[in-house]
User: Which sequence fits this backbone?
């Protein structure tokens, strides 16, 4: 984590949103509570910077209803709520991420709905009302390839208009990306940010017009 001469950084200001780090007092308060995420939802991952940067440069045409899958601390959905006025449902298998998400939502003056669910359990019915499905760094184990690809398949079938998944190019994600190129002509875009932090990876972008 970047350090300043005043100590570790407590938050990033990025494209008009505050992204709280583990050193922020509101996050430290949550850490002292019982909420201990256990499926890697224990910090702000760099892929959410890639996704937010892309969205700021390419605002989606349809973003009335947004789902952030594998939301962790929730910044991708919070950005959509703040910038596009989206109704956001933030989904994660691990309910212990939600107190961290709420601290970030509060810091940004927005509300999002949280839903504890595995990717496998997000139904076509739940996806029918979603315009934009976003996700950052959700495919980090081989066992996640089928659940993530099948979620994308259900989203396409349910008529979700756009799907954007950011990733630091982990091999399970690249397998999902390859399948999405074959099945849905998805686009893969290399993306990087330099400030406020240096991040690089790939965006999987699927237009379902
Ligand atoms: C690496 S973190 C990324 C969090 C957030 N998207 C970000 O960019 O900061 C992965 C998240 O996916 C969630 N997750 C892992 N497997 C899942 C599954 N099968 N269904 C739903 N969520 C899952 C974890 O709990 C965790 O919050």
Assistant:
């Amino acid at each position: 984590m970047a350090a300043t001469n005043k100590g570790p950084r407590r938050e990033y200001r990025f494209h008009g949103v505050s992204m709280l780090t583990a050193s922020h007092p509101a996050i430290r308060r949550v850490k002292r509570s019982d909420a201990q995420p256990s499926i890697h939802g224990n910090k702000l991952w760099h892929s959410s910077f890639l996704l937010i940067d892309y969205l700021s440069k390419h605002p989606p045409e349809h973003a009335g209803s947004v789902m952030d899958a594998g939301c962790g601390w929730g910044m991708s959905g919070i950005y959509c709520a703040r910038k596009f006025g989206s109704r956001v449902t933030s989904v994660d298998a691990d309910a212990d991420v939600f107190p961290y998400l709420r601290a970030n939502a509060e810091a940004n003056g927005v509300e999002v709905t949280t839903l504890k669910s595995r990717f496998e359990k997000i139904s076509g019915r739940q996806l029918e009302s979603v315009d934009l499905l976003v996700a950052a760094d959700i495919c980090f184990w081989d066992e996640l390839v089928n659940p993530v690809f099948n979620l994308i398949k259900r989203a396409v079938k349910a008529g979700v208009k756009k799907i954007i998944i950011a990733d630091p190019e982990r091999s399970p994600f690249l397998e999902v990306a390859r399948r999405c190129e074959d099945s849905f002509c998805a686009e893969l875009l290399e993306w990087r940010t330099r400030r406020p932090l240096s991040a690089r990876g790939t965006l999987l972008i699927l237009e379902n017009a």
Q: What stands out?
A: Residues 39-41, 44-45, 47-48, 70-73, 92-94, 97, 118-119, 136-138, 140, 147 surround S-adenosylmethionine (CB under 6 Å). The helical segments are 25-32, 47-57, 75-84, 98-107, 124-127, 145-158, 171-184.
